[in-house]
Specification:
Layout (H helix, E strand, L loop, with lengths): L2 H5 L16 E2 L12 E5 L12 E2 L5 E2 L2 H8 L5 E3 L9 H17 L7 E6 L1 H12 L6 E5 L17 E8 L8 H6 L3 E9 L13 H12 L4
Parallel strand pairs: 1-5, 2-5, 2-6, 6-7, 7-8, 8-9
Antiparallel strand pairs: 3-4
Helix pairs in contact: 3-4
């Protein structure tokens, strides 16, 4: 199935998503309200494929518990959209489709400030790409241990917009997003959190409170 067909295989017609708060969906809904809030979570590269709980053995990061992360990120104040990407998904194509999903919601009346893009590692790269494509809307952007590719020389044109939050683990190679913040001159705000678990990249493989709680608190904060 083509990427676009897969991502836009919408659920059956539903009423306003307010009645589906604290639920997790694979794609956006057909009917929404201007007061509905959405969070899009993009997982790391290792999850691409058929297994939602793959195990990384080379670096000792262990199991990536995608189902548990979705459950932890879900909240009764917004609808979480967390699509399981196919193996070797092109990040640029996926970011383009993510951009189209967000624009579909906005056309249906959802306020851009009520939409947040969250991504870890490869998913953070996708999130940054989508944020760049949505520069005119300025949706909220959360980068989890994924600024590296966003600041490579060949990606110097990529910037993030809206209110931005970066979270990184001190023992991980993926460090501060300061360089991304410096080149993204039109953000509405930029905040960064360093966590210290000693788990390197694997800190985001599971829904640890040390990163899940501040991310959810930031998402739900009043960012006008």
């Amino acid at each position: 199935m083509k990427l676009e067909s897969l991502i836009f295989s919408l659920l059956s017609a539903l009423t306003s998503v307010n009645c589906f708060a604290d639920s997790v969906f694979d794609s956006i809904l057909l009917q929404v309200s201007p007061e509905d809030k959405f969070v899009f979570y993009s997982h790391g590269y290792i999850v691409e494929g058929d297994n939602p709980k793959p195990v990384e053995t080379k670096n000792g990061w262990g199991e990536y518990d995608f189902p548990a992360i979705k459950k932890a990120l879900a909240d009764d104040s917004y609808t979480l959209v967390a699509h399981h990407r196919a193996k070797n998904t092109d990040p640029f194509e996926y970011a383009y489709e993510l951009n189209k999903q967000v624009r579909t919601l906005v056309k249906k009346g959802v306020k851009p400030e009520y939409i947040t893009l969250v991504g870890f590692s490869r998913g953070a790269f996708i999130t940054g790409l989508a944020s760049d494509k949505l520069s005119d809307l300025g949706v909220n952007t959360v980068i989890l241990a994924g600024c590296g590719r966003l600041v490579w020389k060949k990606h110097t044109d990529i910037k993030v917009y809206g209110h931005v939050l970066s979270v990184y683990e001190s023992s991980d190679k993926a460090q501060s997003c300061a360089a991304l913040d410096k080149k993204s001159t039109q953000t509405r705000s930029f905040n960064e959190i360093e966590i210290n678990t000693g788990l390197s990249h694997g800190a985001f493989y599971r829904p640890l409170k040390v990163w899940v709680e501040p991310v959810k608190r930031w998402i739900k904060s009043n960012k006008k």
